[in-house]
Each structure stands twice: as C-alpha cells, then as structure tokens.
Amino acid sequence: MSRLCVASIGAGRAGLVHARNIARHARADLVAVIDQNAEAAQRFAAEVGAPPTYPSLEEALAAGPLDAVFIATPTHTHRDLAVEAAEAGLHVFLEKPMAISLQECDDVEAAAARAGVVLQLGFMRRFQPEFAEAKARIEAGQIGEPMIVKSLTRGPGLPPAWAHDLSRSNGMLAEVNSHDFDCVRWLAGAPIERVYAEVTNRKGAARGVTADQFYDNAVVSLRFANEALGTIDGTCPADYGYDGRVEVLGTEGVLIIGDVRGTALIEVRDRTVGAITPIHHGWPQRFAPGYVAELDAFVAAILDGAPVPVTAEDGRHAVAAVLAANRSWQEERPVRLDEVTAGEVTA
Amino acid sequence: MSRLCVASIGAGRAGLVHARNIARHARADLVAVIDQNAEAAQRFAAEVGAPPTYPSLEEALAAGPLDAVFIATPTHTHRDLAVEAAEAGLHVFLEKPMAISLQECDDVEAAAARAGVVLQLGFMRRFQPEFAEAKARIEAGQIGEPMIVKSLTRGPGLPPAWAHDLSRSNGMLAEVNSHDFDCVRWLAGAPIERVYAEVTNRKGAARGVTADQFYDNAVVSLRFANEALGTIDGTCPADYGYDGRVEVLGTEGVLIIGDVRGTALIEVRDRTVGAITPIHHGWPQRFAPGYVAELDAFVAAILDGAPVPVTAEDGRHAVAAVLAANRSWQEERPVRLDEVTAGEVTA
Amino acid sequence: MSRLCVASIGAGRAGLVHARNIARHARADLVAVIDQNAEAAQRFAAEVGAPPTYPSLEEALAAGPLDAVFIATPTHTHRDLAVEAAEAGLHVFLEKPMAISLQECDDVEAAAARAGVVLQLGFMRRFQPEFAEAKARIEAGQIGEPMIVKSLTRGPGLPPAWAHDLSRSNGMLAEVNSHDFDCVRWLAGAPIERVYAEVTNRKGAARGVTADQFYDNAVVSLRFANEALGTIDGTCPADYGYDGRVEVLGTEGVLIIGDVRGTALIEVRDRTVGAITPIHHGWPQRFAPGYVAELDAFVAAILDGAPVPVTAEDGRHAVAAVLAANRSWQEERPVRLDEVTAGEVTA
Amino acid sequence: MSRLCVASIGAGRAGLVHARNIARHARADLVAVIDQNAEAAQRFAAEVGAPPTYPSLEEALAAGPLDAVFIATPTHTHRDLAVEAAEAGLHVFLEKPMAISLQECDDVEAAAARAGVVLQLGFMRRFQPEFAEAKARIEAGQIGEPMIVKSLTRGPGLPPAWAHDLSRSNGMLAEVNSHDFDCVRWLAGAPIERVYAEVTNRKGAARGVTADQFYDNAVVSLRFANEALGTIDGTCPADYGYDGRVEVLGTEGVLIIGDVRGTALIEVRDRTVGAITPIHHGWPQRFAPGYVAELDAFVAAILDGAPVPVTAEDGRHAVAAVLAANRSWQEERPVRLDEVTAGEVTA
C-alpha cells in the first residue's frame, strides 16, 4: 500500500479541518464522506473535492476499499463508530474526547488491539511547533523538573447543543479542555493524580441554558504523580477570540508557550487606542501546522510502521481527568482520578 | 504640617525601598531608622542619607518629633509595633502581610481608629501603572463583568528564615502571595469566598528545610462572591528571576497585565539561542513606580486628607484568604473564608 | 489540463523550496529536475520524490510533456533559460532578480508575450500573510497615504560565489535586497524615482574577497513618485540569523510588519541572561506560507486564468532600482531610475 | 555647597520636565523661573511649587544666589543665554539643539571653558535605561563592531511655529532629530562623516505652511568615520503617537532598542480588532527615567566633580550633522560634515 484510502466520518467543523488536509496529502486520498445527514455530508464533500458521500460506514465499505477513517462526530457516538471501524479492519483516527466513559475508552482500545489496527487520538497540540519545541526542551532538561504546569483554552462561539447535553457529553471540560488535560500531563511528564474544579454558568441564562446542564467557566487545580502542580482554566464562549496558552515552570526555568497575539503585524492609528496586533480567530487557524503534522504521523504509523504518537491511553487519561473534575465541582471536594469508575459519566 | 517626619522600622529589603523613596520625597523627611540590630540599622541608614538610628520606636520618639512610621519587619511583630505607633499618635504604613491572625489585624485597625491616625497597607501593585490602568478599564466596563482572575508571583532567592517558621509567619502564601490575594480581589471587584490549595516542597530538602514547615510551590483555586473564579500560583525560590503577572477575563474581553520580559531591548547574537530580552531582576525594580505612588498616596492621606487607598479591611481580607488556603492544603478540602476564626494561625 | 507537469530548473536552495511545494501540490506534479551538474540534480531529486533529472531543458522536453518551469538558477542565466522555456510554450516562474540588465528583462517579457505564456516573478513576500494583510490595510486607507516605507533583509551565511562576481550578478543589493525593492514599491503604491546608496565591505577581507567586487552592508535612501520616502538596508552575512522586517508610516498611522522573534515560545532560565525567544532560521522557514501561496497563484494563473500577481514589470522595476543604487554608491550621488540604460550592468 | 540653587529658563514643555525633576531633587532647589512672557512664567511656576518668576536672567541674579541654569528656550536664543549664564559663573544645562550654527556652539563652549563652569547638553536618551544598557553591551563587545545604526523619532503634534522658521531654527531635523544624530554617533562609537537626506512636506500645506519653510518627513543616510553606515528618519507630526526606536547591527549580533508598545498591558475585546497595547503618549513620559538620570549626572558633575557625560562637542556634532543634512536635500547630493562652515545656517 503506498497511498491510503480514507473516509471522513462526521460532517462538522473538526472533520473539515482533517478532510482538507487529507485531500491535499501526498500519501492519502479522501475517498468517502460519511454522515447520517445527507445534506450536511454533501455540503462538506463539496469543500474537499467532492468525494462520494454515505449515510453510514457500512455503506461506504460496500462501495469500495477503505484503509482508514477519521472520526469527528459527537462524543457519545465515538465508541460504536470506532469499534465498528476497527472490526472492519480500518485504522482509526479518533477526535477528542475519546468517549463518554472509561469503559467506552477500553472498548475502543480493545477493538483496535484485536484488529491490529492503528488507533490515534486527536491531540494536535502535541504536534504544534511551539508545543513540540517546548516538550523537546523539557526532555532535554533545559528547565529542570516541572513544578507547575498551567494551560488555558478559550473559544469564541457556543459549542454545539449536544456538548452541553450531559447524556451525550461530559460538558465544556470535556469538549473544550480535553486538550489542556492531555497537554499538561504530556508536558509534566506524569499522570494527573487529583483534581479540584470550580465552575460557573455566566452566559448560559441569556441563552436559555440552565445551570443544571451547563457551565461556561471552569478553573481546575491539578496534582501530578511526580509532585508537579498545575491549573487548567476554560471558558466558552469567550467572545474575544480563540486563545490557548500553556506555561511550564521547572526547577531551573520557565517556558511560556503561545501568545494571544497572532500574526507578526502591529498597527497604530490612534494614540488613545494603542498598538493593535491581530489575534488568532479560531482553532483551525491557530493550530493549522499541528493538524497537518498529526495527519503525517498517522499516515506514517500506518504506511511506515512508525510508533503511534498519541494512544488510547492518552485519550483515556484525559477522559478520567474530566470525569474527576466534574465530580469535584458536583461534590465540592478534590477527587482522585482513581476514584473514577469504569461506567461513570457526569450526567 | 507641610513636611512629614518619618521613621523606618525594620532594616530589611522592603524597608530600604520605602526609605529611599521617603528620603527623596518632596514632602517627607526620613528622620529615623529603627531596628533592634544596631549594625543592620546603621548599614541601612548609610544607604539613605544617614539619619540617626534607634533600637526601638520608644527611643526614637524620645529623641525628637515623628509624624509617621513605615513598618517593614517580620510579620509576627506587625501587631505590636503598629499598635504602639498608633497609640503614640503616629500614622502607620504597614507592609504586607498585615499580621499573623485576624485578631491581630483587628487589634491594629482598632488602635488606628482610636488614635485617629492614617493606617495604610503596603499593596503597591494597585499603584503600578499597568495595574492601575487595568483596574480603570475594568471599572469603565471595557471587558464586561470579570469571570476569571488569575495572578502569579515568583521570586528569586529564599525568603528569610522566619518566613517559613510557622510560629512567625503563615508561609509562602502569606509572605509572597499576599499581593496576589489582594490584587485578584481588587480586580474581581468582590471578596474571595472559597479557596482550594495544593502545595509542594520541591527545593526545601536540598536546603535542609523539612516539608512540615515548608512549601515552595502552591496553586490556589478561588471562588469570589460575585461568581467570578480565579487562580493564584506562587513559587519561591524561582531561580529564573522575579515574575508577577495577572490576567482578568471578563464577559466582554480580557486584560493581560505584566510581562516576564522587562526592558524594551532585544539582543540576538546566535541564531541557535534566539532573541533575548532582559527580565525584571526583583520586586524593587519591577514595581518601582508602584512604590513611589503608594508613598505619594500615604503622604496625601496625611497631609491633604485624601482617602486612604489601601485599608485595614484590605489587609485583613488577604490574611483571611491565606489562612483559608493553608487550612485547605492541610485538610485537603476547599475552605470558605468565613470558616477562619479570629485567633487562627497556620502553625 | 487539470494538473500541471512542472520542471524545476536549478538544483539550489531556492529551487528546492519550490520543488518541495510542487511535489506536494494537489494540482501540479514535479516531473523533471534540470541542472547541468548531474550529481547536484540527483541529490536534489532525491529530496522531492526522485523525479527524473536532465542536464538541460531541451533534454527534459524530449523526454515527455511539460507545462511549466520554475527557474531558480544564477541570475546571469535567467534571460536565456526563460526565453528558451517561453519559446517552447512553457509557463515560466522566474526567481528574483529577474535578470542582469533591463534589456534582458525586456527580452524575457517579450518572449513570454509572444508565446502567450504566464510569466510570474518570485516575490513571495507579497503572499506572506502579514505582508498581504498590511497591503490590504493600506489599500483600505487604514493608515492614510504612505509617507515613509522602510525594509530590511539580513541573511546568515555567505551568498554563493557567483553572487559577488559582478559579471554574473549585480551584487548583494540584487541577490538579497531585490525583495525589499519590490516590497517597498508595492506597499508605497508608487514606483521608486530616485535612490542614494552607501555600502561597505566589512567581512569580505576575512574571506579573501576584495572591496572592488564586494560589499556586505548597504543602506539605501528612496524617493517614490508619490512623494513617499523610504530606506532599505541589507547585510549578508548577518551571522545572527535571518531577518526581514518592513515598516510603513502613513499620514494616519503606522504598520510594523514582521518580528525578529519567531515561534511563540519564551524561555527564561537565568535572570542575568533574560527571556529567550527562538528566531527565524532562514528564508525557507520564515516565508514558508508565502512560498506556498505564490505557487497556488501561479497554478491558478495557468489553470484558471487568474491574473498573474507578480509581473515582468515588477521584476524589471526591482532590477532598475538595484542598478541605480549600485551606480549611486559608485558615483557617490543620488541616481534616478530613469538614468539606468537598457544594457547597463554594474560590473 | 551641598544643594544647588537652580533657575529654569524657558517656560515651555521641555523646561517643565526639567523643572519638575529639579523641584523633586534631593540635592537641588528650583529657585527661579525665567521667561520674558510673565504669564507663561507664572503658569509654569505654579506647576512646580511656585518659585519666583523673572523676565530675565539678569533680574533673577539680582534677586538672589544662583548656581546653575537649565536653558530650554527656542534654539536661536541658546547662544546668548548660555554665554550670559556662563559669564555670570553659572553652570549650564543646555537643551538640544545646542545652537543655530557651529560658531554659536563654539561661543558657548568657549564661554563655559573661560568661566570654568559645567556645560551639559540635553541628550537624555543616553540616560534612558534601555539605551544605556545597549551602549554598555556594545562597549562590552557583545555584538562585535557596529555595522549599521538606525534611529527614528516621530512626534505627535506640530512643533512650535519658530521651529519651522528657518531664521530661528534649522527645522525638523534639528528640533526633532537632534536626538537621533547624537544617539547614532554615540552608539556607533564614531563621528558621522557624510550624510544624504531626502525630505518632503506632506501635511504642511493643510496648515498653511509652504514647502520653502517646511518639511515634515525626512530620511537620512549616514556614513560614520569607522565605516559603519546608518539611517535616521523623522516625522512630525506623526499623529499616531510618540515613537523613538533605535537598532544597532554589529558584526556579531543586533540590538533593538525601544518598542512602539508601552505599558505591559494587553487588552482584547473584539477578535476582528485584535490585541491592543497602550503606546507612549509623548517624550516626557517615554523618556521619564532618562530625564531624571541626566539631572542626577548634572548635579553630580557640579557637586561631586563627576565627569560631564554629554559635552559641547556632542552638541556641536549634532548641529553639524543637521546642517549637512539640510544642505544635502537642498543641493540634492551627499554632504560631508567637514563641508559645514562656522557661520552656516540653513535659512
């Protein structure tokens, strides 16, 4: 096999970022778009070279050969789709959060293991140049041992309705901050042991979403297995723009990753306003190099036997941390990740 | 009275910053340096125009007229010195932390009230131009309602020995992070209601300080009375330099205050190293304008009857937050500030 | 025609940047690498998917169909190669500087016009996001009318030997600063009318290059037809790294484009050193998005009939400005661009 | 003498900056404000503690003892005032530009030498921390030998009417860019040998100022005696704010001094606008530490016999460079500084 035949499952925004990169890739072809919503699937396909569309993976498989799928659907569908794909012998790229519960994560991992297919999770920040450079410096000992690791994500615009329906998602900490939970663990070099979360619902009421279902601000304290501490904060919607920044303080120095300011352009027109620099408009633009590089890694894992850089274990850890954090604010106490049970969901 | 006669009590680093500013002030004269340690007092005096030195406030008062004192001694001495000064009719500028317990804070406040003297607390960040500008913008509604307020302080060098002796201090959160506790409340526009803290001792062992007495890293989650959330983190020693930064996310925008980079100078010599910008070397330099402006405000409160900008209530709130945070890591649970009792100390 | 068959002529660094992008392009295939030096051609081809190599365009044409060529050879070969390609009916992408003399520029332009092929010049900065955004803002009137336009380019490493052999190149101002001459005119919105240049040879002696042939520092004053003024400065080698920055001051504001600092990463380890940010290592990395976008534009001009964004006139103007600047430092006086004669070269 | 009695001559903006610093100085008293315009003198005095005002130096001397004067009057009055002060035995701090012609500069220097008084010129940028740090690094060899030195100054607001009356001033290059001419020479470590200037009048017409009298934009090429090259650009009014930045490229590295962005505060409210940072509003704020430090140096030169840090020779060199630059744009050719004659003025 020298080129991969890839199907994109889920005609949403995250799927589109991947599908565009697949369509442009030198070693992969986008051969199918899969979504129950035929209209959405066709609109999506029109933006990526108009591959055929199908309502289900089953029908796509019937139509022709497939090597791999990208799954970027609502979280509660991940388990079944990923298991189905793995059982069909397809390599699986699975967006975050991995699934709704640890049991679901285990089901996916087991199915991939049984099938002997590649299973890669969608934590693209690890591939973003400034993040990868920071990780390399930490591993080289440039800042000594990590002591405090902080990460924030703020996103403009409301998440989709299912993301604050607790029967289909574990809420903002899952949908927005999964990246932070993965990133801090990766940079700290140790699993998260205990979390404490505070949340509030500040803008939901104006949108008719009650506090029971919804929170739009969170701060989470972290304690890692190697004694590092940390914080995560998340806000969505943060109308000012998309913002994702990380800071790692070590025993010998500090790394500050990311900047709310984007393009290297300064404009000054009015001295009472000040100097203006464009910011990042959204995650597809902010992490564009990361998305390309994680696809390259997935292709290399399949075609070249390269190691899978982001594994089921990584996806599972982020799910455990989110579930612990949600239980923390519900029970108003710190929660250890090993308290989370296999079938536990936040609802 | 057109010029103030001021005594500086405490021949340490913080006292020196104030004493230098007093000696240069157009409406104040530094007329006495007071410290039990005669040698330290003389060394200190030599740097600020050589005013006479005394072992106690009593002896200084006997030697000539005084209008005001700056108290920058170890925390456990604050209550007695401040009460003595107030009872002698002197205006009191009191460094942070205000005292060891809430009872001591109340004693100081009551003494000042009885004597009718000005009592101002040493939270100079409020006077620092970028902090003051941020506060003005928040009050003008530029970023809407505060949702998340974050503050960090990291300092090079060990704190003095008494600062991690829990019979004389409430530890790093008191000695280093009092500024953060004050600043977040001031910027959030509401008192802190509940805190949760995680701490570690990462460098103490190498210095022979055991974990029982000591922690050198802390992250604290905050919940404010107006539903804002927040975090504080502190590290001391952070050998890379002095760093103090704050971020306020509101419903309509964000303010990022401070930069680890200092002087507006970039040097590039080696492309494998990168572009280098000097950083702040310590708090006296980092907050130099703030120290000058808080002195101006103190002088104006005394000579012109201007309102006292930082009050006993401000000092007391920071002490309460520190005590709650310390109890939080000791009891491994979130602690409300109203749980802190009058005589409570961390020890 | 739905995909372009493209040959890369010139097995050097600039050619490689283009060839890599062609090999990855969705609408183009790299089908030939052409260089007289067979070994260099093969080394080059090995890095871009191993297309066949040829010693000449003639032999490549004999081997199979070609639609377009990228010419990235030493400047003195541009005219003949571009004319040969155009006469063979091939679309031509021609690296800067366009040619050695205005007569050569005219020859190339005439050949392309006769053949009816696309001729695009390699000024990739126009396609770099921050430059394109600045141009859009200027055209939208955000900073009023341009008054002063400044541009600098500094490059690490020596240019190739032919670049300071005045029988084969017009020197550093041509080889390094052509980009600046094009960019300032494009941003000023008017041709350069008059230039004055000062040059020095500071590092050549250590490399056995005499001042007669060589200068490695230049500052150039500019006067544009619309009364804007400007400066260009160039240095090569500037061992500290690659640096290209532009500033446009208008009647209503200012735009500062580019930053010596690259990746959004800050590291602090030592307070006596300061905060360190990686810089750009070279032009292929610094202008990577610009190189991709100029290729997209070339493909679109051929396949979709889109307008050619950088024309022979643009290339010719930069050559005229370089020749005038070289005459200026030789004659120690300001030189108007209309003084430059058709056959004039600097030698 | 332990405290200096100082008079401020010239009730304008620059005088006020000095007078405020003198009034606050520990070793100096502001004892007189001198201006022909009694009303202006009184308004000025009211802002600095209300010292007595006088219409002339003569009357001030008659009223009481004086040790030193600060002269911040229109340039054409500098020579007579400085000579008068020196002949009265007063130490002289003289604002830039030193005088209208080299002859006048020589007259001032000779008078000070005869009287044995301190004569210090007002180039405060040398005392600004980031400039002083850059100079120290250059002298320590951090960036090797200077190759290119660039400086710009842009000011909001029109200069006073006399500043573009060529019988009273040598125009914008003198009034605004004297600082740049001094600064580049100081940082390059060698005198300017030759200049070439281009100027335009872009906003004068709208204000009824004809091109004969006026230019509001200039770019100047520089060649130094040690083979370094440079550029200066000036614009006044530049309505966007006050901006002064310098860059020094050496054989081993580069230093970038200053930033259009001021206070370390970032605000983002609207993703279509971007991140906003306050800028410097004017030179009194931008160079506040420099003004304080140059006063300290003047006081130390008088009271402690410290070396005078900015001398008549420095002032004279900047005047020569300005006169050469003005002749350059008038004669449309590069002009050597040694072509400037003793009595030459631009008019």
Number of helices of chain A: 11
Radius of gyration of chain A (CA) equals: 20 Å
Percent range for β-strand residues of chain A: 15-25%
Please give the number of β-strands of chain A: 15
Q: What fraction, in percent, of the residue positions of chain A are helical?
A: 25-40%
- Strand-and-helix sequence of chain A, N→C? EHEHEHEHEHEHEHHEEEEEEEHHHE
Provide the structure class of chain A. alpha/beta
Count interface residues per chain for the largest interface.
Answer: A-B, 41 and 41 residues
Instruction: Say what oligomer this is.
Output: homotetramer
Distance between the termini of chain A: 44 Å
Mean pLDDT over the full residue set of chain A: 94
Major sheet of chain A: order of its strands?
Answer: 12-11-7-10-9-8-15
Describe the structure.
4 copies of one chain form a homotetramer. Chain A has 347 residues and is α/β, with parallel strands linked by helices. Helix content of chain A is 34%, strand content 23%. Chain A contains 11 helices and 15 strands. In chain A, the strands form 3 sheets. Chain A has a 7-stranded mixed beta sheet, with helices on one face. A 6-stranded parallel beta sheet of chain A has the order 3-2-1-4-5-6, sandwiched between helices. In chain A, strand 9 (217-224) and strand 10 (229-235) form a beta hairpin. In chain A, helix 4 (78-87) runs parallel beside helix 5 (102-115) and helix 8 (178-188) crosses helix 11 (312-331). The longest helix of chain A has 20 residues, at 312-331. The mean pLDDT of chain A is 94.
